[in-house]
Write a structure and sequence with these properties.
By secondary structure, the chain is of the alpha+beta class. Helices cover 20% and strands 31% of the residues. Strands 2, 5, 7, 8, 9, 12, 13, 15 and 17 form a nine-stranded antiparallel sheet that branches. A four-stranded antiparallel sheet has the order 6-14-10-11, with no helix packed on it. Strand 10 and strand 11 form a beta hairpin. The protein is globular, with a radius of gyration of 18 Å. The protein starts with a helix and ends with a strand. The mean pLDDT is 90.
Length: 287
């Protein structure tokens, strides 16, 4: 059955299916939307008591529900100066060292940091020998992404690609999964150096958005696009620790990369660890 599920992903028109589902999810269909939302809440056992609006009828479309805000204070932020906070609700898939420019995807599966970040060696170079973390967001999770530290945006890169599922089964069976799926790469300058924050698309993920650019995809393209941002001035983008930086419409994956010798993950953070936005994730190292 697992082999069949993987084979089916290769055969299906994933972009077409995802865009069609995206249009349905964005539609305001009244009682139909409310019924779909109610079924989803029940199927995935979503804790709506954490949501700012608790009832299915409070949302005009499935997308409004899926990107629902949480109640104020429900995710306390660890504001200690030497702590990197968890950016999302989800589960740690992998984390550790970036060795020889490779990241661990799953057992017996590594992939290229340079490919993940859009193909340029100069983009990947600051992170060689550093640390990475991959966090999987399941459909039941809160789908807004927040800043783990304060950062000033230097570059955003749209990388076209496939839309394979990013669930654990696919990660264990599809080579180079995260470097072949459509994604939005963001590079921030922080007090300890650059930080890469990558938003990876997946099957049925109808949209990836950032707070400064709005919807980055769709539409999907065939070329890599790069946007440069100034450090100061009218078009600069600085986001405080804990601030929202983007969101997914349906589940996907976030990947973080840090430079060598700058951070270390807390001992309790291991593959399989449940993450909650704002909680301690890593610690800055003394120079």
């Amino acid at each position: 059955m697992d082999k069949f599920k993987i084979t089916l992903q290769y055969l299906l028109p994933k972009h077409l299916i995802s865009r069609l589902v995206g249009k349905l999810a964005a539609a305001k269909l009244g009682f139909i939307s409310h019924a779909l939302i109610s079924l989803f809440i029940k199927a995935y056992k979503i804790n709506m008591q954490e949501a700012r609006f608790e009832n299915a009828a409070d949302y005009a479309s499935f997308n409004e529900f899926f990107t629902r805000p949480l109640k104020d204070g429900i995710r306390p932020l660890d504001n200690a100066a030497d702590i990197i906070a968890q950016p999302v609700d989800g589960k740690v898939s992998q984390l550790g060292d970036i060795v020889a420019g490779q990241l661990v995807q799953a057992k017996n599966h590594d992939y290229s940091l340079q490919s993940l970040l859009g193909g340029k060696a100069e983009t990947a170079e600051p992170f060689l020998g550093g640390k990475f973390a991959t966090i999987y967001l399941a459909p039941k999770d809160y789908h807004r992404i927040h800043m783990p530290v304060t950062g000033t945006l230097r570059e955003m890169i749209y990388v076209p690609g496939e839309l394979f599922s990013v669930n654990p089964l696919t990660a264990e069976n599809v080579p180079d999964l995260f470097a072949r799926n459509e994604r939005v790469v963001t590079i921030f300058d922080t007090e300890f150096g650059p930080m890469a924050l990558v938003l990876v698309g997946a099957t049925i993920v109808a949209s990836i958005e950032t707070v400064w650019a709005g919807t980055v995809t769709p539409p999907a393209g065939k070329d890599v696009f790069r946007w440069q941002y100034p450090a100061t001035g009218l078009n600069s983008v600085t986001l405080e620790k804990g601030a929202e930086m983007g969101r997914f419409k349906l589940g996907s994956t976030v990947i973080l990369a840090f430079p060598h010798g700058k951070v270390d993950f807390l001992p309790e953070q291991q593959p399989g660890t449940v993450t909650r936005m704002g909680e301690p994730f890593a610690k800055l190292l003394n120079e």
